């Protein structure tokens, strides 16, 4: 019997250390330096360096990676518990070496990169010396990869890339971009796309604009590629493997977002409960009113359901060691995440009255964060389709008119079974 909902005491003491450290040493940075990805902010970078050292001394740096890549190899389950601490802070993931989009990019470099690519890009990325960007979405097609048009054409020992991409997080401060492009338009996009490493500053690569999205620290870049030449050895994985590499990356990214969202949901819930026991109404505290109690009960149930689903998904990834085998679970948490975040943040906002809608409290940002979680890494609709298809795969077709629960037929079968047994009993008398 291996069911267990307890954290082992050794790791719990690390979580306790992390909670205190984030609260006292990291969260103050959130309020004063809005963008942990901005490496040009020398003051903020200088403040971050000793904090990273403390995390490394505790053995909590890049928790999701194995020892061969400089992490402790704790796996996704322990990362989920740690992200429940880090997810409330903008800076904490960077201080602990597990920030998006770098964590997902590191994962695919480790998985598909050549030794030379690992030495040049993965090693400094893992050491936190450089940042990276993942470049997939296009202005004319995001959710549907069959609409991607950015094209790479082979020219001698180089590839030449032309096209446009947008909403690429942290493009502005990235040292390199991992870019998904069409290399063979004659075959299905699932076989005709490839992934390239494009160093920042490569001639022809232009950042047209940086979008700011409310509730997010990093900016999202709009990139234009005009005859961008990259050496053939900058292909990441095999030619035509782009979709496969993307699936590996996005699987992890979605789960890590869900883990951090558990932390934000908890923060909104805690603030709602604090308000309920603090604000006085005519007949006592706000929490004494039944409609407030209903909001709190609903929120607690939704939060705990979501958290348990995220933890079980993390546990299944550790067990299967293959994101594809956990597709259904990942799609389910991706769908649940924006709804739980939105509903609990909205209730918390509402119970705070006027100050709840102001920028002095975090609820409006949280609600927009929920909207982004319903879009980034694929919209909710696409994940509902994946989830339903995965579920339906496990069912065999039955009679199309009389379902297998059709009682008259079941009764007939039961009668036949009972008659046979009775005959046996009578025969033995
Ligand atoms: C803050 C933020 C950060 C991001 N970071 C990155 C990044 O780092 N790299 C990157 O490449 N991209 C990134 N994205 C882009 C993100 O992945 C896309 O926005 C997402 O895939 C949706 O694509 P789209 O915006 O083109 O919407 P569209 O594809 O135009 O979809 C619009 C709407 O159409 C509906 N829809 C779409 N498909 C279906 C369907 N099959 N069935 C029913 N309805 C459907 C949905 O309601 C959907 O919301 C980021 C986006 C945001 C907001």
From TrEMBL:
Residues 15-129 form the Acyl-CoA dehydrogenase/oxidase N-terminal domain. One of its GO terms (biological process) is fatty acid beta-oxidation using acyl-CoA dehydrogenase. InterPro entries: Acyl-CoA_dehydrogenase, Acyl-CoA_Oxase/DH_mid-dom, Acyl-CoA_Oxase/DH_mid-dom_sf, AcylCo_DH-like_C, AcylCo_DH/oxidase_C, AcylCoA_DH/ox_N, AcylCoA_DH/ox_N_sf, AcylCoA_DH/oxidase_NM_dom_sf. It comes from the Bacteria. Its cofactor is FAD. The keyword Oxidoreductase applies. Keywords: FAD, Flavoprotein, Oxidoreductase. Residues 240-391 form the Acyl-CoA dehydrogenase/oxidase C-terminal domain. It holds the Pfam family Acyl-CoA_dh_N. It catalyses: a 2,3-saturated acyl-CoA + A = a 2,3-dehydroacyl-CoA + AH2. GO terms for cellular component: cytoplasm. The keyword Plastid does not apply. Homodimer. Belongs to the acyl-CoA dehydrogenase family. This is Acyl-CoA dehydrogenase. It comes from Nocardia puris.
């Amino acid at each position: 019997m291996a069911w267990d909902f307890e954290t082992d005491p050794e790791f719990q003491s690390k979580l306790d250390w992390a909670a205190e450290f984030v609260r006292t040493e990291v969260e103050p940075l959130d309020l004063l330096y809005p963008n942990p990805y901005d490496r040009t902010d020398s003051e903020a970078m200088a403040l971050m360096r000793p904090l990273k050292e403390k995390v490394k001394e505790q053995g909590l740096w890049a928790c999701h990676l194995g020892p061969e890549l400089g992490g402790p190899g704790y796996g996704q389950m322990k990362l989920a518990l740690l992200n429940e601490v880090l997810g409330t802070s903008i800076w904490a993931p960077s201080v602990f070496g597990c920030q998006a989009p770098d964590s997902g990019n590191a994962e695919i470099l480790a998985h598909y990169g050549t030794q030379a690519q690992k030495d040049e890009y993965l090693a400094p990325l893992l050491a936190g010396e450089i940042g990276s960007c993942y470049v997939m979405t296009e202005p004319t097609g995001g959710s549907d990869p069959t609409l991607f048009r950015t094209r790479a054409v082979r020219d001698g020992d180089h590839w030449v890339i032309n096209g446009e991409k947008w909403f690429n997080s942290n493009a502005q401060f990235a040292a390199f971009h991992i870019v998904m492009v069409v290399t063979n338009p004659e075959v299905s996009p699932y076989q005709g796309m490839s992934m390239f490493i494009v160093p920042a500053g490569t001639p022809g690569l232009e950042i047209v604009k940086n979008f700011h999205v409310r509730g997010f620290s990093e900016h999202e870049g709009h990139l234009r590629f005009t005859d961008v030449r990259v050496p053939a050895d900058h292909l990441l994985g095999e030619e035509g493997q782009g979709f496969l590499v993307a699936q590996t990356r996005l699987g992890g990214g979605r789960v890590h977002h869900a883990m951090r969202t558990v932390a934000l949901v908890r923060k909104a819930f805690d603030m709602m409960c604090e308000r309920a026991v603090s604000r006085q109404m005519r007949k006592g505290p706000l929490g004494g009113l039944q409609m407030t109690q209903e909001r709190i009960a609903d929120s607690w149930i939704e939060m705990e359901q979501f958290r348990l689903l995220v933890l079980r998904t993390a546990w299944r990834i550790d067990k299967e060691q293959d994101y594809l085998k956990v597709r259904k679970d990942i799609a389910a948490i991706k769908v649940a995440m924006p709804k739980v975040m939105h509903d609990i943040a909205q209730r918390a906002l509402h119970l705070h009255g006027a100050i709840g809608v102001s920028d002095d409290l975090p609820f409006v940002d949280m609600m927009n964060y929920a909207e982004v979680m319903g879009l980034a890494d694929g919209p909710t609709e696409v994940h509902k389709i994946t989830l339903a298809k995965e579920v339906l795969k496990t069912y065999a077709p039955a009679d199309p008119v009389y379902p297998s629960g059709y009682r008259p037929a079941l009764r007939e079968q039961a009668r036949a079974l009972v008659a046979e047994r009775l005959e046996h009993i009578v025969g033995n008398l």
